[in-house]
Amino acid sequence: MVALTDRGFLPAGEIRVPAMATVVFQNRTQNAVAITVLGAECPACDTVLGFSAALEGARTEALPPGSIASLCFHEPGHYPFTATTAGGSVRQGGTLRVEASR
Prior knowledge:
Blueprint: E1 2-5, E2 8-10, E3 14-18, E4 21-27, E5 33-38, E6 51-54, E7 57-60, E8 68-73, E9 77-85, E10 90-99
Parallel strand pairs: 1-4, 3-10
Antiparallel strand pairs: 1-2, 4-8, 5-7, 5-9, 6-7, 9-10
């Protein structure tokens, strides 16, 4: 799970996950935020929750405090993620490093 807190994303930095993993994002702030994962696609997985396709990758609508969204990753690669507040402020996130299955 990746949590957005008032201090930023936890865990911070690069997060390693295997291909075919589902990553859950949780908004632990007091404000609604939208999560963007650059380069990610939204295939028709049963585990996608709250994300939809966007020009830059996959994006949620504004997640209310306490809400979650999830996205599955089929292809190995590096996927940077950020959060945007209703006021347009962007919080730098980290990078999901999806590693090939063995």
